[in-house]
Amino acid sequence: MKPDPRFLNQPKDFWAHVRLIGQEVGYTDRRTGEIRIPALEEVEACYRALSLRIGGISRGSNRPTELGISLFNYFRFRSELLLNAVEPFLMNAEQARRSFQSLRAKLKPLCPLPMNKQKGKKRKPAYLTGIINMLIEANSEGFPCDYDPHKLTVVTRDGSPLRTLARRVDGAFPSAVNPVAIWEVKEYYYTTTFGSRVADGVYESLLDGMELEELRRVGRTHVRHYLMVDAKYTWWDCGKSYLCRLIDMLHMGYVDEILFGKEVFESVPRLVKEWVAIARQ
Predict the structure, then answer these.
(1) Which 8-state DSSP code applies to residue 36?
(2) Burial of 106 (0-12, 13-18, 19+ CB in 10 A)
(3) What are the residue boundaries of the structural domains of the chain, listed by start?
(4) Which of the two residues, 124 and 193, has the higher pLDDT score?
(5) Are 243 and 232 in contact (CB under 8 A)?
(6) Any idea which of 25-34, 53-62, 70-79, 207-216 has the lowest mean pLDDT?
(7) What pLDDT shows up at residue 194?
(8) Which of 21, 54, 81, 233 could form a disulfide linkage to 47, CB 3.0–4.6 angstroms apart?
(9) What is the mean pLDDT of the chain?
(10) Cβ neighbours of residue 178 under 8 Å, at least 6 residues apart?
(11) Separation between Cα atoms, residue 97 and residue 128, nearest integer Å
(12) Burial code of 216-229, b = ≥16 C-beta within 10 A, e = fewer?
């Protein structure tokens, strides 16, 4: 999934409103589980309760300002996007297992196919990671790939480190030194709640994105950044509010694309072809 150009390049205060409204009004309806599209009256009441000026987004009498119109258009867009273009692509563990096994039989890969980090009966192949690795290998045209960097991402200039990212990422193409692309995989097929570890994964990707934004601005270097997530129960049934945050992150420019579940089958080959073309330059 790529960002919608209508909501890219919004000023930081636009996203300050988005986050605050999400916190105060709520991302979902707790009774129905549906993703909320806030009403102007609700936002006005929240801002008054916080002693904040409402004039930036409302003229009163249910008349939004230009900024208010943009905000409510975004909330409506985000809700419809998640319902129509995210939920249908998320897989459960059995769907992911079948897809993984089918692709492995077809491609006979040599790339790493790691196990997940769970124990006992829940210890299984990391299905989404394995699918992504196989698709990268099949489309990389002989270029190397660091499928599991055990090192920090480094961008150099004139043979000297320009920036070293704070975290180790899940994958880098063609390597963790001067990569064309880096990515994070968040698959949680066997978790039973949306716990702090899952939430931390969202904020880790946000940190990476903020560092890469600074690199683009100061170093004028674009390392492409991707997030790939799956597990319908975890993300859709338990974590819709964090899906909202992911869509916000995408449109804030902190990730180039987010791939949800089955979306990787079409999008990863396309992306790898783009990376190869860049690596050849």
Answers:
(1) P
(2) exposed
(3) 5-89, 93-279
(4) 124
(5) no
(6) 53-62
(7) 81
(8) 54
(9) 95
(10) 154, 155, 156
(11) 9
(12) eeeeeeebbbbbbb
For residue 149, which amino acid is it? Answer: P
Q: Is the pLDDT of residue 180 over 90?
A: yes
pLDDT at 62 exceeding the cut of 80: no
Both tokens of residue 24? 């105060």
Q: CA-to-CA distance for 225 and 179, rounded, in angstroms?
A: 10
Q: Which of 264, 189, 259, 265 is nearest to 228 (CA)?
A: 259
**In 3D, which of 278, 268, 277 has the Cα closest to residue 137?**
268
Strands 181-187 vs 160-164: parallel, antiparallel or unpaired: unpaired
Catalogue the E-assigned strands of 175-217.
181-187
99, 131 in Cβ contact below 8 A? yes
Look at the block and give the residue holding tokens 């196919």. 113
CB atoms within 10 A of CB 178: 15
Residue 261 DSSP label: T
86 Cβ neighbours under 8 A, 6+ residues apart:
1, 236, 243, 260
The pLDDT-based confidence of 30 (bands split at 50, 70, 90) is: confident
Q: What is the largest CA-CA distance in the chain?
A: 64
- The DSSP code for 148 is S
Single pTM value for the model: 0.94
Which tokens sit at 90? 């998320």
Which residue do the tokens 């099949």 mark? 138
Q: Is the pLDDT of residue 103 over 80?
A: yes
Cα 115–chain centre separation = 22
One-letter amino acid at 76 equals: R
